[in-house]
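Hallway conversation turned thread

IA: we were arguing at lunch whether anyone had actually written out HTH gntR-type domain-containing protein end to end. Turns out nobody had. So, for the record, here is the sequence (237 residues) and right after it the structure tokens. Reply here if something looks off.
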Amino acid sequence: MDVNRYVADLVRREIRLGLLPPGSALPSEREFAEMLGVGRTPVQLAFRQLQAEGLIERRRGRNGGAFVRGAGEDESRFHDVIVEAIQNRDEIRLAMEYRCLVEPSVSRLASERHTAAELDQLESAHQQLLDATDDATFMRSDAVFHLTLAHITANPFLIRGIEETRQCCHPALALLPEGGTFHEATIAEHGEVLAAVRNRKSDDAERAMSAHVQRSMWSVQKLLSTLKDRHPDDAAR
């Protein structure tokens, strides 16, 4: 196994799923190596690759380490995310279409299949969304909520599909508005999905999620339409 590629893929996946939002600190190279039972060299190579891709940055000093970069962190990263959204806009549209078709059914299944422990996990994800005091925590809680619903179905094909489409949509989701009414709408819509799942009202769960992902798709389409006539080389202008 190519260990450094495995480590890079692992961190890249967590970032693109939103589980490691901008500003998140990664474990140290030593801690990562111990967790995976490998030497530090593959971890160092993986971190260098992720840094070259613009996904993380290395900071020196007392509070140094490796941190996830975000679209709002600096102009360079903002440019990179815009370029990625422009280059992959057709795939992003298809991924959002998939979400609109599949995630309502995922919520229906979750309402029918959840255990008490799984419902607690979903409740916890929603509470974290309510308690979020910064955009990074909000983004992570949003991702956890959707991924938890997928895992409740116990269907590996649905789980894989939701994970892959969220990774594909990552550059567009990272550029969506933060705070204010956008957060309020997300909280309200998640709350409706949660209530329906909790009460095992499958039709309501499906309708609530459909409304939620349709709004997300509209927001993403609006974003992509503003980028459609831009060339990647013009992204920073």
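OS: looked through it. The chain has two domains: 3-68, 76-229.
IA: good, adding that to the notes. Residues 76-229 form a domain with the Four Helix Bundle (Hemerythrin (Met), subunit A) fold (CATH 1.20.120.530).
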